[in-house]
Every structure is written in C-alpha cells, then in structure tokens.
C-alpha cells in the first residue's frame, strides 16, 4: 500500500509542478557526487541525516512539507522516543470530533505525519506569489538525476554572466534548466548551527539536506539493499549446489 501511494504521488508530482524541472534536468550538466548511500552496499550516514533534518526544519519546512513521512520514522535517523515526541509536539494537528461533535487542535504525536506549513494548497499559493511549493517527500525520486540533481540545484546559485538579463523575481542557477529559477537561494554560509560543530558551509548543508531527502524518498533503502544482497548470495549458493548435484548424477554417464 505504501509503495502504491509513493508511486502514485511521484507520478502526480512529475505530471504537475515537478514535471518541468524533472524533464529539464537532462538539459543541464549534473556533476556526479559520491554518496554514502550509493551502490549495492551503500548506507545512510546517520550524522548527515540528522544534520539534514536540521536544515530541513530550519530552512525548508516553512514552505515545503513532508506529507508521506511520520514523525516516528525519525527513529531511523537515530532519535529516541522522547526526542521524537518533543519534535512532534512542536506542531499542532486537527483532530476529532470530540464528545460535542467539534473538531479540535492538539499537539502532534509520533504517529502523525509531518504537519504541512500551510492549511491548504490555496494558502500555500497565496503565500508564494501564486506558486505551489512542492512537497519534498518524494523529491529525490521524482527528479531526473536524483540526489545529484538536488545537490546541483542547491549549490547552483551564482552571479549571472554580464551578458545575461535576469528578470525581477528570478535567480541565476547553473543547476536549473534555463539557468533561471523563481526560488530564492535557500542556503547561506552558517545558515544553521550544527550540534556536532560541523562547519555549515553551503556545500555541507546541501549535502546533508539532500541525504535527508534521499532517505525521505526511500526510507527502506538500506533494508532493500540487504535483502537484495542476501537473495544474490542465496542464488549463488543454490546455483553451486545445482551444479554439484548435476556433476554427481551425470558423473558415470558417457
């Protein structure tokens, strides 16, 4: 069921607000990055995940939601039960009806999904000049280039060439098709203060929040890779047994 929801949501995102950037990603050069979660044996760096969550909370969460991620999923990042309860309780959700038949607000619980920064899409558009900020739950999966594209976009804000005219409300970005994007630069040096004292450069923040969003898109990635490796090992052993059995059975046949 979760996989079906993820697939449908990814399709919807690509078909709407994400369609342009996703297709356009192929029109720009996206440098290949080395990610700890890449490859067959890749795993998520927990420290980077927690730093990335901090960047999301401090920078991205004011406009972008994570509607397919529940607060309790933060246990995968290394947070304990009390920490997760405290993080969730910072937000309020609508619940009910109560005994009087009325809806009410309550602090969010670990079982709740991340609370959207806006009450509805119309409110989101009204706060962003008519544009609907995309949900980030499936962002890395929905983009062509995945994590590499996200990192290139976040680090791609530069001064425009002298011969290029950038319209008001647009920003020059080497990682975006056409090099013009409406989203202002979200990251700045020391824009966050990491608890582990990691220098908060733009590149570091971009790498950490990209890692976090890659996890949000594929929270079961590590388990899937472990299962895949076990299946491959089983097939190799099984193939060897079949070959040995065949050799024994047909050993005396000329």
Question: Helices and strands in order, then pairings?
Answer:
Layout: H1 2-15, H2 19-24, H3 46-60, H4 81-89, E1 92-95, E2 104-107, H5 121-127, H6 139-142, H7 146-154, E3 171-172, E4 180-181, H8 202-217, H9 221-249
Helix pairs in contact: 3-8, 7-8
Question: Any overview of this molecule?
Answer:
With 254 residues, this protein is mostly helical. The chain folds into two domains: 2-69 and 120-219, Cytochrome c-like domain (Cytochrome Bc1 Complex, Chain D, domain 2, Orthogonal Bundle), CATH 1.10.760.10; 221-254. It is 43% helix and 5% strand. The chain has helices spanning 2-15, 19-24, 46-60, 81-89, 121-127, 139-142, 146-154, 202-217, 221-249; strands at residues 92-95, 104-107, 171-172, 180-181. The strands form two sheets. It has a two-stranded antiparallel ribbon. Strands 3-4 form a two-stranded antiparallel ribbon. A hairpin with an 8-residue loop joins strand 1 (92-95) and strand 2.
| CA-based shape | globular
Cα-to-Cα separation, first versus last residue: 55 Å
Number of helices: 9
CATH topology category name of the largest domain: Cytochrome Bc1 Complex, Chain D, domain 2
State the order of secondary-structure elements, H for helix, E for strand.
HHHHEEHHHEEHH
What percent of residues adopt helix (DSSP H or I)? 40-55%
User: Order of strands across the biggest sheet?
Assistant: 1-2
Name the CATH superfamily assignment of the largest domain: Cytochrome c-like domain
Biggest pleated sheet: 2 strands, antiparallel
Low-confidence stretches: 1-26
Q: State the total count of DSSP E strands.
A: 4
How big a fraction of the residues is strand?
Answer: under 5%
């Amino acid at each position: 069921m979760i996989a079906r929801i993820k697939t449908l949501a990814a399709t919807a995102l690509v078909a709407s607000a994400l369609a342009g950037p996703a297709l356009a990603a192929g029109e720009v050069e996206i440098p290949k990055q080395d990610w700890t979660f890449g490859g067959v044996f890749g795993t998520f760096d927990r420290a980077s995940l927690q730093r990335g969550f901090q960047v999301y909370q401090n920078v991205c969460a004011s406009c972008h939601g994570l509607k397919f991620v529940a607060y309790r999923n933060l246990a995968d990042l290394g947070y304990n039960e009390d920490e997760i309860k405290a993080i969730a309780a910072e937000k309020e959700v609508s619940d009910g009806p109560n005994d009087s038949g009325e809806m009410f607000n309550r602090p969010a619980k670990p079982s709740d999904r991340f609370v959207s920064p806006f009450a509805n899409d119309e409110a989101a558009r009204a706060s962003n000049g008519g544009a609907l900020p995309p949900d980030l739950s499936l962002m890395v999966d929905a983009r062509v280039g995945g994590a590499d594209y996200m990192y290139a976009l976040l680090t791609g804000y530069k001064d425009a060439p002298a011969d290029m005219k950038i319209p008001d409300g647009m920003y020059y970005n080497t990682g975006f098709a056409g090099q013009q994007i409406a989203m202002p630069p979200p990251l700045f040096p020391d824009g966050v203060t990491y608890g582990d004292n990691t220098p908060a450069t733009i590149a570091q923040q971009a790498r950490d929040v990209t890692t976090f969003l890659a996890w949000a898109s594929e929270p079961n990635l590590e388990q899937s890779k472990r299962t895949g490796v076990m299946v491959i090992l089983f097939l190799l052993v099984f193939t060897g047994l079949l070959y040995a059995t065949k050799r024994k059975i047909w050993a005396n046949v000329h």
